[in-house]
Amino acid sequence: MTPDEIKQLIRTVPDFPKPGIQFRDITTLIGHGPGLAATVEHLSQRAADTGAEAVAGMEARGFIFGAAVSVRLGLPFIPVRKPGKLPIETIGVDYALEYGTDRLEMDPAAVSDGQRVVVVDDLIATGGTAEAAVKLIRSAGALVEDALFVIDLPDLGGSELLRGSKVNVSSLLEFAGD
Fold first, then answer.
1. How confident is the model at residue 100 (pLDDT cuts 50, 70, 90)?
2. Please, what sign has the CA dihedral across residues 114, 120, 124, 128?
3. What sequence ranges are listed for the domain Phosphoribosyltransferase (predicted)?
4. CB 154 within 8 A of CB 111
5. What CATH number does the domain containing 80 carry?
6. Does residue 78 lie in a domain region?
């Protein structure tokens, strides 16, 4: 399937979670076997082109696409978790949200010094979570130069934020004006 055909599988839910927001729902994409397979294949080709030695995904939807890309390429998967989810000593990073802060954590032994890690997630909007994941993985000693997304909402500036952190950003689909 082409990216344009995949884009048709994304459901738009108006006014969620608040009026004026056009929510891009991937549930319809992941529920469509050929569409999901094609999406993973496109992301996997891009990840392979980066020379990645491991794939990282943020909880929760980044686990869907990141783990699938990891399996497809035969690479390790690094889960970047919400706080308190790992039963071991972790490293973490706090980051700003629109109202308040949040935190991401990971096992510091999940990466090795200089290992090339590509970050994979379903969507980039403002980029705060992705930027925090990049900082966290880098703090563990890995090299993060690339991030891949199924959907980019370019008007929200997340891709530009990551590029400012010296990360190459690639997305399969864009939805302007959101």
1. confident
2. negative
3. 31-142
4. no
5. 3.40.50.2020
6. yes
120 DSSP assignment = E
Token pair of 7 as six digits: 């884009």
When divided into structural domains, the chain yields a total of: 1
- The single-letter code of the amino acid at 165 is S
Q: Residue 1 in 3-state DSSP? A: coil
Q: Are the beta carbons of 95 and 132 closer than 8 angstroms?
A: yes
Selection from 147, 153, 145, 146 nearest residue 173 by Cα: 153
d(C-alpha 92, C-alpha 107), whole Å: 9
Looking up tokens 């491991």, which residue turns up? 54
The residue type at 116 = R
Sort strands 11-14 and 22-25 into parallel, antiparallel or unpaired.
Answer: antiparallel
List 91's β-bridge partners, or say none: 106
Place of tokens 């071991």: 88
Threshold 0.85, pTM exceeds: yes
